[in-house]
UniProtKB/TrEMBL annotation:
<dbReference type="InterPro" id="IPR051839">
    <property type="entry name" value="RD_transcriptional_regulator"/>
</dbReference>
<dbReference type="GO" id="GO:0004803">
    <property type="term" value="F:transposase activity"/>
</dbReference>
<dbReference type="GO" id="GO:0006313">
    <property type="term" value="P:DNA transposition"/>
</dbReference>
<dbReference type="InterPro" id="IPR002514">
    <property type="entry name" value="Transposase_8"/>
</dbReference>
<feature type="coiled-coil region">
    <location>
        <begin position="62"/>
        <end position="96"/>
    </location>
</feature>
<protein>
    <submittedName>
        <fullName>Transposase IS3/IS911 family protein</fullName>
    </submittedName>
</protein>
<dbReference type="InterPro" id="IPR009057">
    <property type="entry name" value="Homeodomain-like_sf"/>
</dbReference>
<dbReference type="Pfam" id="PF01527">
    <property type="entry name" value="HTH_Tnp_1"/>
</dbReference>
<keyword id="KW-0175">Coiled coil</keyword>
<dbReference type="GO" id="GO:0003677">
    <property type="term" value="F:DNA binding"/>
</dbReference>
Amino acid sequence: MGKSQKVYTKEFKEEAVRLAQTSGKPIAQIARELGISDSAIHGWRKELAEQGKEAFPGKGHQTTLEEENRRLKREVERLQQERDILKKAVSIFSRESK
């Protein structure tokens, strides 16, 4: 069986990069302390430098567009429910006025 790849949160990755940049310790030492490889920190640092806030989207962290898309879908669903309620209310009130 192959090894399963460990998944780290966006916050963990950002903190590892921050430690590498500000602690003054060698990356190899930080990696040992965090229980990860130094190549992981190098890769995360590069990704963060290239992509900024959009780095490390993962499953739990959508990009800005994905997040906006999910928000809009929720809003559409809410508005459809409101529309359905109003249709029923119009139907009920129009029967009562006859």
